[in-house]
Amino acid sequence: MDTPSTLLNGGQILANALVRQGVDIAFGVPGESFLPLLNGLVDHPKFRFITCRQEGGAAYMAEAYAKLSGQPGVLMVTRGPGASNAMIGMHTAYQDSTPMVLLVGQVGTDMVEREAFQEIDYRRMYSECAKWIGSIDRVDRIDEFVSHAFHVAQAGRKGPVVLALPEDVLYMTSQENPVKPAHIVQPGLDGNVFQPAMQAFASANKPMVIAGGGNWNSAACEDLRSWVNREGVPVATSFRSQDVIDNLDPAFAGDLGIGANPALVKRIQEADVLLVIGERLGEMTTAGYSLLSVPQTKATLIHVLSGPEELGRVYRPDFALNCSPENFCAALKTVKMAKNHDSAVMKTAHAEYLTFSSPVTVPGDLQLAQIMSSLPSSIPRDSIMTNGAGNFATWVHRFYPYGPYKTQLAPANGSMGYGLPAAIAAKITNPEKVAIAVCGDGDFMMNCQELATAARYDAFPIIFVVNNNMLGTIRMHQEREFTSRVIATGLTNPDFVRFADSFGMPGFRVTKTAEFAPVFAKALASKKGALIELVLDQEVISPSKLLSQLGK
Q1: Segments forming the whole domain that contains residue 473
Q2: CA distance readout (Å), 468 to 380, 491, 550
Q3: Quick one: average pLDDT of 201-226?
Q4: Are residue 525 and residue 376 in the same domain, yes or no?
Q5: Going by C-beta distance under 8 Å and a sequence separation of 6 or more, which residues neighbour residue 157?
Q6: 159 is a domain residue
Q7: Is 109 left (phi over 0), alpha (psi -120 to 50) or beta?
Q8: pLDDT at 1
Q9: How far does the chain reach from its first CA to its final CA, in angstroms?
Q10: Residue 2: pLDDT band by 50, 70, 90 thresholds?
Q11: Spatial distance between the Cα atoms of 277 and 291, rounded to a whole number of angstroms
């Protein structure tokens, strides 16, 4: 006679289901709406719940973890306010094509549609920034919903999904229906399109490759690097995807983003065939859709994307390939061009990048370009650089040469406050690596409370706070559009050195370029990371313009 299966409550079933999906870490802020899930996780002593100080910071950490680990980032937050705070990280994951699973508490099924305490309709709330939103309204379907969520998050164009957890369902009991880990389903190569597309590329006089976006892995990056070097073709990367190819590689021609190299822009516009891999050709990469003509580009466009819904959305490609970067770049290894492209062109494009990324001098005692360009001489090539949003990021993107894949964590949606939580997640994921968060003063203060998380888990990064006591990007736009009519962009900051010290972290203030090197050496030697405040004159609004020159 068969022995009946043990009855478990919904929280235990859900915890077991997550572990079966290979999940061993989650980020979040605990809440009373999902207490049975937390209780279920106690039975898995190797599972780590990283308790953050605000759901926005937790969401960024889960997103950064997913990028570094290649596994879906798991985020757990409570209903209502917690779910609202988590929205910023979900939007980041959506625009960055990062797989995430958000588990969010919900009111009981007996209270739905009554505007109960902290009730929100998550299907409407997350409809613009999630691939799928589900609500587990039956305890006997938990395993099914978890399997669905992990399949969707990792299929095609990867991205975030949401599972709402009605509180009463987590207390109900049922038997488990164990499900094996989700498949990672990625589109393969259509040879009928690939062959003529590569023939067109082979016949090009001025070919260019643009690589970036989501869904990459180390194998795809290496296959691309090897092929373009063999064929002598220059590669540009899209906005905040600079680590798709090592920036010191001879094939790297620079990145397309804010303040792109004019020489690179000219090359893209003069190309007769463009091979775009993984990048949607969004607003930032195309300089507001002005880099390439819409909807038909002048160049023959070969567009390779994991998500079919993005092919032809803005630009009508001549060859549309619904294929993952991994599968496409693996196929490139078999392609030998019918004619040899001039490798001198590739080398010239790289030389133009090196010239553009050479430090520039601006008025004042602190030369931020020189500091950023000096970093590679003292840190490993696999060091992880993170940043949020603001004019300060221009310096790191332009003057720091990123290393191989997984050395850049930066939000494609331009979200402030990302850099610090991402760097903390980097230290949790890869504690042996150097992780540096480059932040503006406004940017840093968005999530500075997460230093408490760094202290709790001994995951201290090195932090640069570029301090000019203002929201520099907005001030720059104000001066351009409404000269000398300034409002709302000035900031009052704490003493950043003392702030770091309060978390047991060494802090330093640097006002002159010569002061940086010895301070940075101390930061690298520290077991508690360090915060280095870089005091920048407000006049130095960008590497190429002074504040007083705007609007003239």
Answers
A1: 358-549
A2: 29, 9, 17
A3: 96
A4: yes
A5: 97, 214, 215, 305, 306, 307, 309, 310
A6: yes
A7: alpha
A8: 33
A9: 88
A10: very low
A11: 17
